[in-house]
């Protein structure tokens, strides 16, 4: 009975309180898929402008599939987790060119597409095709853990299975899409991580965490992965003709497919004397004989989920650069990490001094 009341109350709350968002006014799998990929590990306030830009620039999956990857990455710039954008583009091409633009119409079929996991497949299948498969994301974990008093870690194998099983029991088979959106919206707006609105909560009379004063303790999560510290030294070449060098990150890892200045990564912070003695510096500056100066005396700290990057930008003035160099003003046309975007914006406004 508690399960049934939970589901019924949640849907009632949602229908009265849901936000008016563009992807809630459609059951087009392309639009739903796009919104779900964009909103993974991203707040709606941040993701909404990107969604509007993407749907304006690429109104159909064929438009997205036919776009150059660099254009897609440039449009994605600032949203982070760039593997999502690469997978998005890859899947768009598969659906457009191999499936005539038609998405699979069930959970199992959707799972076979690149970049679509349990959560996204469940969201699309339930919202677009009324398949009763439950979504489980951070919001869902939090609501279920608090309401039902579940202490299993949400990032453990046992916990993941238990939460998914419970979520499947709770879903309304007659309106699965509405239920899934309801529990996600409730977690985002009402049962929030740090300041939940418990005193005005429609579920508080039967909520375990509220009754036991354990709202702040749930959900349980295993200790975070160790943070890796990295030191990046970017070589910003600048010729007398205001040309510079840019290269694309091809190796797997952070920022794959994005562009950056020639990079020397060191184990610790280095200064001019140390940098110019490195083999990589000699390789990058061979025959150029540049004048070198440090642009930022204090390293810029850039925080990623499991990495902290400390970046220095070194300005290397030289007479001429190779033919593949680009004009400094065209830097804004390339998709780059936010760390470089911020530097480029300031640098271009400084007359390169």
List the helices and strands and how they pair.
Layout: H1 2-17, H2 29-38, H3 44-57, H4 61-66, H5 69-76, H6 83-98, H7 107-111, H8 118-129, H9 138-148, H10 157-170, H11 176-189, H12 208-211, E1 228-239, E2 243-244, E3 247-248, E4 259-260, E5 263-266, H13 272-276, H14 279-284, E6 291-294, E7 300-303, E8 307-318, E9 326-327, H15 338-348
Parallel strand pairs: 1-8
Antiparallel strand pairs: 1-5, 2-9, 3-4, 6-8, 7-8
Helix pairs in contact: 1-11, 2-3, 2-8, 8-11, 9-11
Domain HhH-GPD: 38-189
Family: Belongs to the Nth/MutY family.
Function: Adenine glycosylase active on G-A mispairs. MutY also corrects error-prone DNA synthesis past GO lesions which are due to the oxidatively damaged form of guanine: 7,8-dihydro-8-oxoguanine (8-oxo-dGTP).
Compute the gyration radius: what is it? 24 Å
Instruction: Give the overall silhouette.
Output: elongated
Give the low-pLDDT segments: none
| CATH hierarchy, class of the largest domain | Mainly Alpha
The number of domains: 2
Q: Using the 3D structure, state the CATH architecture of the largest domain.
A: Orthogonal Bundle
List SSEs in N-to-C order: HHHHHHHHHHHHEEEEEHHEEEEH
Distance between the amino and carboxyl termini:
70 Å
CATH superfamily of the largest domain, by name, is Hypothetical protein, domain 2
- Total DSSP helices: 15
Structural class: alpha+beta
Biggest sheet record: 5 strands, mixed
Count of beta strands: 9
Beta content comes to 5-15%
What level of helicity do the residues show?
A: 40-55%
CATH topology of the largest domain: Endonuclease III, domain 1
Rounded mean pLDDT is 94
């Amino acid at each position: 009975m508690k399960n049934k009341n939970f589901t019924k109350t949640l849907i009632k709350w949602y229908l009265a309180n849901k936000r008016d968002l563009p992807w809630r006014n459609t059951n087009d799998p392309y639009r739903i898929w796009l919104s779900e990929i964009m909103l993974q590990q991203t707040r709606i306030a941040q993701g909404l402008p990107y969604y509007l830009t993407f749907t304006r620039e690429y109104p159909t999956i064929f438009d997205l599939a036919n776009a150059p990857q660099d254009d897609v990455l440039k449009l994605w710039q600032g949203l982070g987790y760039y593997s999502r954008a690469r997978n998005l583009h890859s899947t768009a091409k598969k659906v457009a060119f191999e499936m005539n633009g038609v998405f699979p119409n069930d959970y199992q079929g959707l799972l076979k597409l690149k970049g679509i996991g349990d959560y996204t497949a469940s969201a699309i299948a339930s919202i677009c095709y009324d398949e009763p498969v439950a979504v489980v994301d951070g919001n869902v974990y939090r609501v279920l853990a608090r309401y039902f008093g579940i202490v299993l870690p949400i990032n453990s194998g046992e916990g993941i299975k238990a939460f998914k099983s419970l979520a499947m029991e709770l879903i309304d088979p007659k309106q699965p899409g509405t239920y899934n959106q309801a529990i996600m919206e409730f977690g985002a707006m009402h049962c929030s991580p740090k300041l939940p609105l418990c005193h005005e909560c429609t579920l508080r009379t039967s909520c375990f965490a509220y009754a036991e004063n354990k709202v702040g303790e749930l959900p349980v999560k295993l200790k975070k992965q160790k943070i890796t510290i990295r030191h990046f030294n970017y070589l910003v070449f600048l010729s007398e003709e205001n040309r510079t060098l840019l290269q694309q990150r091809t190796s797997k890892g952070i920022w794959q497919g994005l562009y950056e200045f020639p990079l020397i990564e060191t184990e610790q912070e280095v200064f001019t004397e140390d940098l110019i003695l490195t083999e990589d510096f000699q390789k990058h500056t061979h025959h150029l004989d540049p004048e070198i100066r440090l642009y930022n005396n204090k390293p810029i700290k850039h925080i990623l989920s499991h990495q902290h990057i400390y970046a220095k930008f070194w300005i290397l003035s030289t007479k001429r650069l190779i033919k593949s160099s680009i004009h400094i003003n065209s830097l804004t046309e390339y998709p780059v990490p936010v760390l470089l975007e911020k530097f480029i914006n300031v640098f271009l406004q400084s007359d390169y001094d």
